[in-house]
TrEMBL record:
Pfam families: DUF6949 (PF22258). The chain crosses the membrane at residues 7-28, 48-68, 80-104. Keywords: Membrane, Transmembrane, Transmembrane helix. InterPro entries: DUF6949. This is Uncharacterized protein.
């Protein structure tokens, strides 16, 4: 049996994940990040790690926004966009749980 608090907790985690991905995207754009371009040589492990971390944080927001633009232009069908939105919601829930656990583990909310 599910209680209303379980549903509200899931919605809060999802909203936290989407907010984190939006803030991460805006901070990355503010720092000058653009779409990756292929370099002449292999990328350094630090750059690859940074780009993977950024993609893991920003992914849900990019899925929703790019999917919406592609659906409006007719490139993506509505059922496929629905699947993209569901994947983005699940991904943001996972990200939100990680962010909330980090916030609670920091001790900030215990005071």
């Amino acid at each position: 049996m599910m209680y209303i608090f379980d549903i509200l907790t899931a919605l809060f985690a999802m909203a936290t994940g989407f907010a984190t991905s939006w803030i991460g995207l805006e901070l990355a754009r503010l720092c000058g990040w653009r779409e990756p371009v292929s370099a002449n040589g292999p990328a350094s492990p630090v750059r690859i790690g940074a780009e993977m971390t950024l993609t893991a944080v920003v992914g849900p927001w990019l899925l929703l926004i790019n999917g919406f633009h592609n659906w409006r232009s007719g490139v993506v069908s509505l059922p496929l966009y629905t699947v993209l939105a569901l994947v983005a919601v699940g991904w943001s829930m996972c990200s939100g749980v990680v962010v909330l656990q980090a916030a609670f583990a920091s001790g900030y909310f215990l005071a």
